Amino acid sequence: RRSSDLRVRDLMRAGVMKSSQKPLWYDVYSAFPPKKVPVYQDLKQDNIVQTQDNIRPIFYEEDLIRAKFFEVYGNGPKAFDLFRPNFKSSSQRFVEKFTELQKAGEMDEEKLFEETGKALLSEGIILR
Question: Which of 41, 48, 56, 89 has a 20 to 30 A CA-CA distance from 32?
């Protein structure tokens, strides 16, 4: 038997735990004990073989825009409203407007970032 069910059995025998307080699994475990007793093994760091994962970092252009948005503007004035399926956060609106302005003409990224903020402000979206 495993130590957890032995502990429950001993607590009930000693009167510390009432029969009505026993865990749901206790009767099932007692009626159908496993063929092999589950053994807990403490894995020490010495036994673990370190492997190198070959996972490439994935960055999309919009991730970099969004990261800069949060750096400059923070989380924005509103919390995310996850109850509305069509809700767009201020950061998502910023990324979409940034991409739209980027396609419209050639500007350096700093100026484009400022212009995006101004364009959203003119649409009534307050970023701070």
Answer: 41
115 neighbors 107 (Cβ within 8 angstroms): yes
Give the pLDDT confidence of 30-88 residue by residue, as tens digits: 888 888 877 766 666 556 666 777 888 888 889 999 999 989 988 766 677 788 888 88
Q: Is the dihedral of CA 79, 84, 62, 91 positive or negative?
A: negative
